[in-house]
Structure prediction request, 172 residues.
Amino acid sequence: MTAPDTAVPATALEPLLRRLDALESKEAIEQVMVAYMAAADRESDKGAHIARLFTEDGRWESVGPHGNPGWAAVGRRELRRKFDRNVERMPFAAHFLTNGSVTLDGDTATGTWMYFQACTYRGEQALWIAGRYHNDFRRVDGQWLLSHLRVHNFFTTPYDQGWVRVEHMETP
Prediction:
């Protein structure tokens, strides 16, 4: 007696493989953002840890009414320089990320998140910062990376005054 043919046709597996890829891709993109937050909170060497999360031509941009267009960085070299500057500027930072939503389109994706940050500005001023990320991602050699990060700050305020009294404090 021969065993019954239990092979599943490849065409039957394609929808399942697409769903699996979508689930794994969304999780990988979430983990890129988790790694970005952890790198931004490092006490040293922030730049190298952040730059490796971006594509070679990756872009970081501060947008919105409290944005800082002069802080934009394009390419890993500029990203390293930009974030290494933050070691002195914000020696302590604790980012919290929430309300994520990822939309896939093949090897590209977009994602939005809300964030809240407690930090110390120049070692002297405790701040609250909150805003939204709207990011583009690209899969490069099987790895999801940031291709364009846009941060839109809602407020940057001294912790003891709050965002109603001081909606935005400059932090050059």
Observations:
- The beta strands are 54-63, 73-74, 92-105, 108-121, 125-140, 143-158.
